């Protein structure tokens, strides 16, 4: 297939052709090497240090990434309010996408990163399902408005929040959704902090409408390989 043809294909079309795509590295630690203080707000770098955020995307694309994530992991209203930026969800998320897209060659992809809100749904927590959906929709629609090629909902530990996030993307945008959870290895195998196994994750995330499912963050490559192997035994769908 020619390069011209590749340039007009969406991310899901590339995957359907059997292409293996390479994603980027970490965002937070990269920004820390560029001046982000521990405990600081990464998303505010989109406005205070735009060139650093653009350079981050360029650096990852330059070394071979097909996919780069936006600097928006904590870009939901709940997390931003902790830094006094709760009213800036839309512009910070839009800028996150625009900065990454400004460095994206054709045809590489920019995925809007969506992390946990940091809140628990009722009855375990104080947040209603309707309120959680409102928080998630605000962020994912802003990422679409910025020009993202898709949304990656990542580092989730609770199925309830994850399924709502998938629903938020599917019902309010036209973007594909990738969904990953974070698992720790214990005596009984791999589970998220909320007790979700890789097997539960695969079935529930796919049933909720995720186009790609998988795992991310913190385990090291040996554990990630083992998790991927378990997931592949359960599905012939796309994995990340």
Describe the structure.
With 240 residues, the protein is α/β, with parallel strands linked by helices. It contains eleven helices and eight strands. The strands form two sheets. Strands 1-2-3-4-7-8 form a six-stranded parallel beta sheet. Helix 11 (220-234) links the parallel strand 7 and strand 8. The two termini are 24 Å apart. The mean pLDDT is 95.
Any key phrases for this structure?
six-stranded parallel β-sheet; 240 residues; 11 helices; single chain; globular; alpha/beta; two-stranded antiparallel sheet
Give a concise summary.
The chain has 240 residues and is of the alpha/beta class. The chain is built from 11 helices and 8 strands. Helices cover 46% and strands 14% of the residues.
* Oligomeric state of this protein: single chain
- Strand residue percentage: 5-15%
- In whole angstroms, how far apart are the ends? 24 Å
DSSP strand count: 8
Low-pLDDT residue intervals, each spanning 5 or more residues: none
Q: What is the topological layout?
A:
Blueprint: H1 3-7, H2 11-16, H3 28-33, H4 45-48, H5 50-62, E1 67-69, H6 77-81, H7 89-102, E2 109-114, H8 129-146, E3 150-156, H9 159-172, E4 177-181, E5 184-186, E6 189-191, H10 198-208, E7 212-215, H11 220-234, E8 238-239
Parallel strand pairs: 1-2, 2-3, 3-4, 4-7, 7-8
Antiparallel strand pairs: 5-6
């Amino acid at each position: 297939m020619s390069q011209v043809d590749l340039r007009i294909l969406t991310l899901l079309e590339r995957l359907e052709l059997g292409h293996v795509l390479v994603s980027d590295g970490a965002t937070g630690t990269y920004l820390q090497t560029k001046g982000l203080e521990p405990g600081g707000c990464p998303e505010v770098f989109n406005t205070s240090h735009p060139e650093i955020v653009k350079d981050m995307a360029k650096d990852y694309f330059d070394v071979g990434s097909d996919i780069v994530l936006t600097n928006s992991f904590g870009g939901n209203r709940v997390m931003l309010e902790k830094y006094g930026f709760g009213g800036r969800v839309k512009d910070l998320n839009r800028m996150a996408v625009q900065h990454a897209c400004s460095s994206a060659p054709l045809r590489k992809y920019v995925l809007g990163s969506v992390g946990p809100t940091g809140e628990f749904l009722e009855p375990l927590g104080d947040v209603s399902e309707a309120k959680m959906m409102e928080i998630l929709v605000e962020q994912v629609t802003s990422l679409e408005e910025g020009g993202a090629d898709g949304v990656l909902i990542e580092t989730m530990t609770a199925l309830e929040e994850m399924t709502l996030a998938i629903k938020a993307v599917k019902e309010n945008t036209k973007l594909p959704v990738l969904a990953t959870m974070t698992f720790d290895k214990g005596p009984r195998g791999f589970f998220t902090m909320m007790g979700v196994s890789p097997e539960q994750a695969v079935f529930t995330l796919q049933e909720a409408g995720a186009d790609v499912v998988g795992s991310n963050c913190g385990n090291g490559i040996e554990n990630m390989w083992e998790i991927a192997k378990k997931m592949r035994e359960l599905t012939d769908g796309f994995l990340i």
